[in-house]
Specification:
By secondary structure, the protein is mostly helical. 55% of the residues lie in helices and 9% in strands.
């Protein structure tokens, strides 16, 4: 039941993880770059599990920002906001589009901090980040 809910994953042997790591990183990089313009790919590859891990668009963009040398969640939020603003997009919160850049950035900061604390350690353990 836990595996079906996505709370438990099986892991490959160390040799398989090592051989898959570089390929997974390349695939993930391509998918994260694509997430700049679309949210249709919500998975990244894990060399640890040998399969896909659900990673929503904003989380992919946070990872991409970190890979581009932005170490802090606040910088990830700013990066994501720049991507969205250029495309004329905004954040939906409670079913409503946030109206101002400040509101959007505040929400992204909250999401980036939550991602850093809760999701990033798991993605690192799975070899995704």
């Amino acid at each position: 039941m836990l595996a079906g809910l996505g709370h438990v994953y099986s892991a490959q042997e160390d040799s398989a993880i090592k051989s898959a790591h570089q390929s997974c990183q390349k695939i993930n990089r391509d998918m994260m770059v694509r997430s700049r313009s679309t949210g249709d790919l919500s998975f990244l590859a894990s060399p640890v599990t040998g399969g896909g891990i659900t990673v929503p668009r904003f989380h992919q963009l946070f990872l991409l920002a970190a890979q581009q040398g932005k170490p802090k969640p606040e910088e990830w939020a700013q990066y994501v906001w720049q991507v969205l603003a250029v495309q004329g997009q905004s954040i939906l919160k409670d079913g409503k589009a946030l109206a101002t850049p400040e509101e959007n950035l505040a929400e992204l900061n909250e999401q980036a901090q939550a991602f850093s604390n809760k999701h990033l350690p798991i993605l690192k353990a799975l070899g995704v980040a």
